[in-house]
Amino acid sequence: MFDPGRIDSFPEKPGVYIMKDKSGKVIYVGKAVSLKNRVKSYFKSGESLPAKVSSMVSHIEDIEYIVTDSEVEALILECNLIKFYRPKYNILLKDDKQYPYIKITTNESFPRIEVVRKIKKDGSKYFGPYVEARAMREAIDVLRKIFPIRSCKKDLDRLPLKERPCLNYHIKLCTAPCQGNISEEEYGELVKNIAMFLEGRKEQLLDHLKAKMREAANSLQFEAAAVYRDQIVALEKIIEKQKISSTDLVDQDVIAMVRGFDTACMTVFFVREGKIVEREPFILNNVEGADRKEILASFIKQFYDTASFIPKEIIVEEEIDEKEAIETWLSAKKGSKVKIIVPKRGEKKELIEMVAENAMIYLKQNEDFEERERIKNGKAMEELKNYLGLEKLPRRIEAFDISNTQGTESVASMVAFENGMPKKEDYRRFKIRTVEGPNDFESIKEAVFRRFKRGLEGDEKFKNFPDLLVIDGGKGQLRYALEALKELNLNHIPAIGLAKEFEHVFMECKSEPIILPRNSEALYLLQKIRDEAHRFAVAYHRKLRSEKNLKSILEEIPGIGKVRRKALLNAFESLEDIKKASVEELSKVPGMNKKSAMAVYEYFHKA
């Protein structure tokens, strides 16, 4: 238990405090103008704390702090630490790391447009995040029809390529820069137009295209003028559908919130040049016991920490915590003044009421969906209990799968589902150490043995044991998994094998397979869990194989030894990323210098 007496030695300076439990896990991150006063407020005797805060305080074993020069610096650090640790007691943007972004690779001669889940400092432009992935992909399809830029990953450093243009060129979704059909300047114009569209500057883009059309017509370049005309017509059709929301034509984000029991729905309407161009709903978890001002502030900090565009005005329903510090932080990120406004009357008040109504509808839909999922998963677990003759409901199910290439780089995956839903923080991966060649049976045994042995030894990451173990495979794979359990005296844990070919279920106590009804929720749940284990195993295997290939290539570069190879592998995710990196970016990698960075760059760019 944490000794509150230690707080007397805390400084009365701005900074971030990090609360940990007895296992050393970070459970809360907060910022303070005065570290000493803020942390002390959690331990004042006689003061009633909200239930959630009281529970958190009872689990605190240690508190660390980091002093900063200002409240704004503390805010930035707090954002980074929450994103990194995702602490149990912080208000968290649900699955924020999963939200997709549109990326334009402006660090290339002929940029590509692609969808990514992670923002990097690689010189590219990012737009998002987007919750509605389908709508985002539809927008990309529309953009590529109007402004046909490439989506392929071909290296276009040396043009033209000898190969023929791909199908996208023939169906007018690409201008085929690979064949030298378009200059860098002309191609750059297409990229600039897409960026303007994604930033919401559609009216400005329309004026720009009209000026280009007139310029082309005056120069008697009628084909070019016709292209601009078609782009203008397509854009005008999109713009017609958008609602006028503001008469002052200022870029705004309008944010409203509706609360559920332990969640809140934040809906953001993006207003650009006076028109609503997009709407995105977000779900926040762990809001029980927090007041509205705190929830709004938490969302704004997490959302704008990675947002690709920050507007001049952010309109909210009510005053928020840390308003001045957040405005200062956002203004620094944008490079110009950003204001957070709470409207009392007029069109902005009407607009935020409309956004709040949308938030209410989305939260209701989300809660209805989650309730349907709870009912469906509850039925699936009841069916599994009955079909398999289990003693209790299989609330926690773990599944194992093996992936390798002809016995090399063999890996195992373990996924965990609780109450029918994936619990991704409990997913685990294993490099197979003791098995030579393509032997899935021994590999399964090794992975299962290691997983449960670590749990028995008290490893916090493996402490929760399953109510049912699912092995991807038939009788053979199941037998080896059961051997591992018996060696650890854990043969009371029910285990099954799920064979892919006929979806037969094998159990040790039954000579014949169990055939679940094709339309049963039990079978659907098992298939979902098995498929997720397979996906997770294959993804890990591909990552290791890619790292191995990259390592062997890096070994050929003079001056790049073991330490630098490891640093490059940690800094860049793929060979493609290293090839695209500039000398300056390479030299910033720990352990690299200008000379070694130049060696890597020249290796990949030699004539």
From TrEMBL:
Taxonomic superkingdom: Bacteria
Localization annotation: Cytoplasm
Predominant cellular place of this UniProt entry's protein: cytoplasm
Keywords on record: Cytoplasm, DNA damage, DNA excision, DNA repair, Excision nuclease, SOS response
InterPro entries recorded: GIY-YIG_endonuc, GIY-YIG_endonuc_sf, GIY-YIG_UvrC_Cho, Hlx-hairpin-Hlx_DNA-bd_motif, RuvA_2-like, UVR_dom, UVR_dom_sf, UvrABC_protein_C
Domain UvrC family homology region profile: 254-485
GO annotation, biological process: nucleotide-excision repair; SOS response
PROSITE patterns xref list: GIY_YIG, UVR, UVRC
Transmembrane segments: none
Record-level Gene Ontology MF annotations: DNA binding; excinuclease ABC activity
One Pfam family per UniProt: UvrC_RNaseH_dom
UVR domain location: 203-238
Residues annotated as domain GIY-YIG: 12-91
GO cellular component terms, A-Z: cytoplasm; excinuclease repair complex
Subunit structure: Interacts with UvrB in an incision complex.
Family according to the record: Belongs to the UvrC family.
HAMAP family per record: UvrC (MF_00203)
Protein function: The UvrABC repair system catalyzes the recognition and processing of DNA lesions. UvrC both incises the 5' and 3' sides of the lesion. The N-terminal half is responsible for the 3' incision and the C-terminal half is responsible for the 5' incision.
Full protein name: UvrABC system protein C
Biological classification of the source: Bacteria, Bacillati, Bacillota, Clostridia, Thermosediminibacterales
Gene of this entry: uvrC
